[in-house]
Structure formats: structure tokens, C-alpha cells
Amino acid sequence: MECHREPTQLSAETDQYFKTLRDALPDQLQHTVFLYEDAQISLQSILERSIYIQGFKDALQLFSELQNSSI
């Protein structure tokens, strides 16, 4: 697998692989797959928010340290 592929290409491939897996499952598992996908998206959203907030805190700390060192 290439490490430098475009995010849009990776996203399209991921969607296609997931669709293939979902289509291969029996009907009684389709709802379970939907619930799994929904839970994964919710988890990803929570993690992205946490990562963003941590990055913002890190930037504020770095800014503060730079301000203090230039005094």
C-alpha cells in the first residue's frame, strides 16, 4: 500500500471495500453493520474533537513559552 495516496482516493477505496463487505453479508446482519458504522463515525467525531482541542492547548502553551522566553 502506498503511503502517499490522496485522502480522497483512500476514502473512495475505503467506501468501496466497506460496501463490498456489507453487500456480502446476509440481510439479518445489515442493521448490525449500520449500527457498527454509525458507532465508528460517532467515535471518530469525538476523537477528532479531542485531537483538535489538544492541538489548540499545545499551541497556546508553546505561544506562552515563546512569550516568556523573549522577555
Number of strands: 0
**Distinct helical segment count:** 2
One letter per element, helices H and strands E, the order comes to HH
Proportion of strand residues: under 5%
Mean pLDDT: 90
Report on the structure:
This protein is 86% helix and 0% strand. By secondary structure, it is an all-alpha fold.
SSE order and pairing:
Layout: H1 7-24, H2 27-69
Keywords:
single chain; 71 residues; mainly alpha; 2 helices; elongated
Short overview:
This protein has helices spanning 7-24, 27-69. It is mostly helical.
